[in-house]
Design a protein that fits this description.
By secondary structure, the protein is mostly helical. It has 8 helices and 4 strands. The protein has helices spanning about 1-15, 15-20, 35-55, 60-75, 80-85, 115-135, 140-160, 170-195; strands at about 100, 105-110, 165, 170.
């Protein structure tokens, strides 16, 4: 958890480096916001790989056990965005629009409640992964499906958000999501057809 918090902050700072280099002390003020879930996921995976190698634990078995509950935690955590009135989407007039007060405009605007989109989708992913984990076909199956599933979910929702971390004209999390879907999709097919099945 500690590693994930640090890496989530490091990821956010990295893609806002110009701003934080002007005020380095702000890097440590995580209570002012600025944590990125992909930073947390990447940090957790790297740490888990090191930990499993050190303790001689099968990484895939550990990851398969954890990731359904990671999806569940994400579905609950997104409600923090609602409480903080952050991570919402662009303006919309859809029936399920969410009203927020725009302090700059001095009025209420109606936006996509992207937090609830992701909450519903990750909770659904949790249920699917939990069901599939009862009958794994190979080690790493649930882990890869999580990475593919969350990558797909985030790639769609990120396109609606107004607070995306940007690299030029590209939304970093959206690009990374697509990359994850492709890479872990290939790895999933490889392990499914070429690696040891679950005993």
């Amino acid at each position: 958890m500690i590693v994930s918090i640090i890496s989530a902050r490091a990821y956010y700072v990295l893609f806002n480096l110009k701003e934080y280099m002007a005020r380095p002390i702000e890097i440590f003020k995580i209570w002012n916001g600025g944590l990125a879930i992909y930073g947390a996921i990447i940090g957790a995976i790297l740490y888990a790989l090191w930990f499993c190698k050190k303790k001689k634990i099968n990484f895939y078995n550990l990851a398969d056990l954890i990731v359904p509950y990671l999806a569940f935690s994400q579905s609950m955590g997104r409600w923090g965005n609602f409480i903080n009135q952050e991570a919402y989407g662009s303006v919309t007039q859809l029936p399920w629009k969410m009203g927020i007060f725009d302090s700059l405009a001095g009025e209420y605007i109606y936006v996509h409640p992207t937090f609830i989109y992701e909450s519903i989708c990750t909770f659904t992913l949790f249920l699917v992964l939990l069901y599939l984990s009862k009958n794994r076909k190979f080690e790493g199956q649930i882990f890869y499906l999580y990475m593919i599933g969350y990558g797909f979910i985030r790639s769609l929702i990120e396109g609606l958000r107004t607070d995306s971390l940007m690299l030029g004209v590209f939304r970093i999390s959206q690009v990374l999501s697509i990359v994850f879907v492709v890479i872990f999709g290939i790895l999933y097919l490889y392990r499914k057809h070429c690696r040891t099945k679950v005993a």
